[in-house]
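Private note to self, pasted from the team thread so I don't lose it. Backbone tokens:
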């Protein structure tokens, strides 16, 4: 469901929301176990210093405080109202208080997550927000916690330690679990926000706010569905230029998508498209909760990574080798140690030590070896240092931890620890946590997190507004294309004929294979007559003008009802002469009575691509490019390009992505024309921008070549709304 939403342009509005000086709680109660009781106790007992007003028409007094029958009765200014009443009463409460209060948390459930009645109620709530300039978090949410001002405006227990992570979650239960686990991992929060159904405030609004929040270094998000795709792209890109944004997106299987629909009413989008959006906007995407937590810990506690080179220092050969193995297939690499540094290491390390990377200090290493080794490698250009330790009998774990802490306070390198063990390293881990040195229990976790963070540090930055401006709107071709589509719509067709699709490709300067439309009423004597020079003449062509083609040719059905021609035997290839052509035409006319038939020459094939446009329900038109032909859906070697786009971005994505091997010289084979391919994709982006009522375009195959020969679109399907 799409809601009209007020844009949260005023920082002051959300400042008052998350840093309120006064709070009204509607649905307050002293009854044990009730949400209204938990919320009141959290706000009154955990250190919040602002004014608190309790609202419940059934009581005159609660918790020793005066109780009001409604928010309107309260004379003092209220920065934030928390609503905890049955859903059927919520909208009236918000409406009646909307002149006095502008910020609301709706904890109440019973909205879009329960079905049509709830969706209607939620839409009315969103309309109230728009008409009255309100900020509404929820409904069906946990609330939020701001540790800095000791405000727990939620029904989760406790007060996490104040820090620099803004965590927002579409699942309240997951927010509670993560908050509990974070204490052990040393993750500290600037804010924790449960978004719920996102009737009005959504992930884009929160990202925009926390991008400006001086207490927030990293933004971490758990989402099940994105509400406004285009707004998300715009805000996510701006935010990730300022601060790292780490996202865990749920909904990777059909079953989980069904569960999401019943849980929050969210619509889970395509995983591939979501990943392409995250890649374009600079989002740090994670695969699971473990990776999510690891990355948050790393990014919140360390410096930005300067380069892709890393040095491992270890007191155990095996763990050092395992750490080195974890670099396989990663962007980050093990650094080569300079001879100057090796000479320094040689001065104090035992002869049996390894001076290569990993640098092995041996099992009897005390803190002095770690200190000297760290000092020696600080002159190296490597941007990362990984301190690996196993607690052997003579290992002073806490003292070694202190040396890593001291080194980190002086160096520009990103420093992490991999202390492996249990009770023997417990005190050392406490020291590392207290001093913001992330420790990973296994080397693979550390290397994976560092690799992700480095990719963010080294990401390409594109100006979305400049890309938008670079896509030219050409009114004349737009008008002609819309006329073609309008004709099909008036004839109640959901797809265009090949001849119509070909005209649109011509308008957008995408070359199409020569195509002849056959007159389905060709006389039988012409069908049976074999032409001596093996050519089909214009008198057999609908609207032909002395057109002719040379064999071999292909015959295809051209129908708006048959989109997968090969699957339905609507294609006959390698027709070598007139007799075979006549037989093929007869077969097509018998199998597909009344449908159009086209003839195309059999073109030389070097590489087949599938390109097109997919209109995603969340993000709008997405440009697709992948390996084509009849196996396109089997191999699924596809790249997704999210508009707005520039030629530079398209070329870099083609070269560095799954299709990169096509555009690089390999084993003496010349690369295919990346400039032409990128230009064709850019033309599709222009088409997507100019024509909104195209649901899908599928060009398969697009024949591309590694010489001066022009790429050709052979089969084109255009599905319209």
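Design output:
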């Amino acid at each position: 469901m799409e809601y009209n939403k007020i844009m949260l342009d005023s920082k002051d509005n959300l400042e008052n929301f998350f840093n309120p000086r006064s709070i009204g709680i509607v649905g307050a109660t002293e009854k044990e176990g009730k949400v209204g009781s938990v919320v009141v106790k959290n706000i009154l007992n955990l250190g919040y210093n602002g004014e608190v007003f309790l609202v419940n028409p059934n009581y005159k007094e609660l918790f020793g405080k005066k109780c009001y029958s409604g928010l309107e009765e309260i004379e003092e200014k209220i920065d934030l109202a928390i609503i905890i009443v049955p859903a059927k009463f919520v909208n009236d409460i918000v409406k009646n208080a909307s002149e006095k209060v502008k910020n609301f948390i709706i904890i109440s459930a019973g909205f879009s997550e329960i079905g049509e009645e709830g969706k209607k109620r939620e839409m009315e709530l969103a309309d109230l927000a728009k008409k009255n300039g309100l900020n509404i978090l929820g409904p069906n949410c946990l609330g939020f916690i701001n540790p800095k001002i000791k405000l727990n405006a939620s029904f989760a227990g406790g007060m996490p330690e104040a820090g620099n992570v803004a965590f927002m979650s579409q699942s309240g239960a997951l927010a509670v679990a993560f908050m509990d686990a974070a204490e052990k991992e040393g993750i500290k929060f600037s804010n924790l926000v449960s978004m719920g159904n996102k009737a009005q405030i959504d992930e884009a609004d929160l990202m925009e706010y926390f991008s400006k929040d001086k207490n927030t270094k990293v933004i971490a998000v758990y989402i099940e569905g994105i509400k406004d795709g285009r707004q998300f792209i715009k805000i996510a890109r701006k935010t990730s230029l300022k601060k790292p944004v780490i996202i865990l997106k749920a909904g990777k299987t059909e079953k989980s998508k069904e569960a999401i629909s019943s849980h929050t009413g969210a619509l889970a989008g395509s995983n591939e498209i979501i990943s392409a959006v995250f890649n374009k906007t600079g989002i740090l995407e994670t695969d699971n909760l473990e990776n999510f937590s690891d990355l948050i810990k790393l990014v919140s506690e360390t410096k930005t990574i300067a380069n892709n080179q890393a040095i491992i220092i270890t007191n155990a050969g095996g763990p050092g080798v395992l750490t080195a193995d974890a670099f396989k297939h990663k962007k980050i690499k093990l650094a080569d140690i300079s001879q100057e540094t090796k000479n320094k290491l040689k001065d104090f390390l035992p002869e049996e030590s390894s001076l290569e990377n990993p640098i092995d200090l041996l099992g009897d290493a005390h803190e002095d070896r770690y200190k000297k080794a760290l000092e020696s490698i600080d002159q190296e250009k490597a941007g990362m240092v990984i301190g690996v330790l196993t607690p052997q009998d003579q290992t002073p774990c806490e003292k070694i931890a202190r040396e890593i802490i001291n080194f980190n306070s002086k160096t520009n390198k990103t420093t992490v620890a991999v202390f492996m063990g249990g009770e023997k390293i417990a005190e050392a881990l406490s020291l590392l946590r207290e001093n913001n040195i992330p420790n990973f229990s296994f080397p693979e976790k550390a290397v994976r997190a560092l690799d992700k963070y480095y990719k963010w540090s080294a990401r390409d930055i594109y100006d979305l507004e400049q890309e938008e401006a670079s896509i030219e709107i050409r009114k004349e071709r737009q008008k002609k294309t819309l006329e073609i589509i309008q004709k099909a719509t008036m004839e109640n067709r959901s797809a265009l004929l090949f001849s119509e699709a070909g005209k649109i490709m011509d308008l957008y300067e995408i070359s199409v294979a020569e195509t002849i439309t056959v007159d389905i009423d060709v006389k039988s004597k012409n069908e049976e007559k074999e032409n001596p020079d093996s050519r089909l003449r214009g008198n057999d062509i609908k609207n032909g003008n002395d057109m002719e083609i040379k064999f071999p040719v292909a015959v295809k059905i051209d129908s708006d009802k048959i989109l997968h021609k090969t699957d339905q035997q609507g294609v006959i290839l390698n027709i070598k002469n007139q007799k075979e052509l006549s037989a093929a035409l007869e077969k097509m006319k018998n199998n597909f009575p009344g449908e159009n038939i086209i003839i195309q020459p059999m073109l030389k094939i070097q590489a087949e691509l599938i390109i097109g446009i997919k209109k995603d329900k969340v993000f709008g038109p997405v440009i697709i490019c992948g390996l084509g032909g009849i196996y396109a859906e089997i191999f699924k070697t596809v790249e997704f390009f999210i508009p707005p786009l520039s030629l530079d971005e398209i070329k870099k994505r083609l070269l560095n992505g799954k299709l990169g091997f096509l555009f690089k010289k390999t084993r003496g084979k010349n690369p295919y024309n990346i400039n032409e391919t990128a230009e064709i994709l850019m033309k599709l982006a222009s088409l997507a921008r100019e024509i909104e009522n195209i649901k899908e375009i599928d060009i398969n195959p697009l024949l591309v070549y590694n010489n001066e020969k022009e790429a050709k679109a052979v089969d084109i399907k255009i599905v319209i709304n």
